[in-house]
Amino acid sequence: MKRRFGRLTILVLVLVLIASLSVVVQADEGGHQEEPAHDEAPAGEAEGEDTHADGTEEEHQGDAAGPDQEGDTGSPAGETEDHGDAEGPAAVGEPGHDEAEGVHEEGEDHAHDAAAGIAETTDQFLVIGGEAFVEALLNFIVAVLWLLLVALQLARPYILQLVQKFSLRLGADLWWLAYVLIRDLVAVITFVLSFFYFYPMLLEERPFPMFGALAAVLLFASLVVRLVRDPDDDPRAYILETNLIGIGAALYLASVIFGVQATKIEALQLVSRFLVTQSHTALAFSLLWLSMMAFVVLGLYAVGYVLRTARTRAD
């Protein structure tokens, strides 16, 4: 193995030396070929000097004969020709300067238009992307609030049993007040966010839940029941309120889960198209107008009840 390695090393060195020698020989040949070119230069220079000398002699002879033949009349013509030659480059240079300025202005206009287009595209992307993000986030938040509201509504019997176990009356009252405050606050927030589904323009542009507005009206009806009657003391009012909240939550969650969130599932395409406002705009607008009318009726009834109660207490 060592012998083979030594032979291989010697062979590589020999090849390297041969290659270097060939390179050196080619370099020497190129140098010898270029030398005549340098030698020819003096001859050319000598010829140039001879021609220059001949030309100077002829010029001197012409200068000597010029004043006798032409006289004083030759100088004005020469001056005019010289002025013409001097003015020529300036006159020719002015259009080129104008063209350069025009190209520069066109480049600035193109750059300005490109920057304006990029800015407009960025603004549109931010606006459209921001709207889509807010709307998708709103659907998810309202769904979570509906689930929380149903859980709080069904937790009333558990809270009553827990309150009875308190030995201190103050602790029981505070626990009950906290429960009532959280439940009512969640109901109000859910209704306020659900009012977003009453905008007609968004029903065609975005995939909103089909029964979003109707669920909001049912929640508003439960709030009116809570205003008119006391569900915590009246079992019938509690049952009515629970039914309204349960139906509204079922309609909204079904529209979101099987409609908005199932648009890309092939097995649920038919159901998804039916439960999305963008696919069935006729049904969506019909439910929207019906929900608006019900909302107005319930609102007028609530306002009338508050005014009658205020007059009764004032008398």
Quick structural summary:
With 315 residues, the chain is mainly α. The protein contains 9 helices and no strands.
Characterization of this structure:
The chain is mainly α and about 325 residues long. It has a domain at about 140-315. The protein has helices at about 1-70, 75-155, 155-165, 170-195, 200-205, 210-230, 235-260, 270-275, 280-315. The protein is elongated and about 125 Å long.
Q: What's the rounded overall pLDDT mean?
A: 74
Q: How do the SSEs run, as a string of H and E?
A: HHHHHHHHH
As a percent range, the share of strand residues is under 5%
Radius of gyration: 49 Å
Largest sheet: none
The DSSP helix count reads: 9
Shape: elongated
Keywords:
single chain; 315 residues; mainly alpha; 9 helices
Break the fold down into its secondary structure elements and pairings.
Elements: H1 2-70, H2 74-154, H3 156-164, H4 169-194, H5 200-205, H6 212-228, H7 235-260, H8 269-274, H9 281-314
Helix pairs in contact: 2-4, 2-7, 3-4, 4-6, 6-7, 6-9
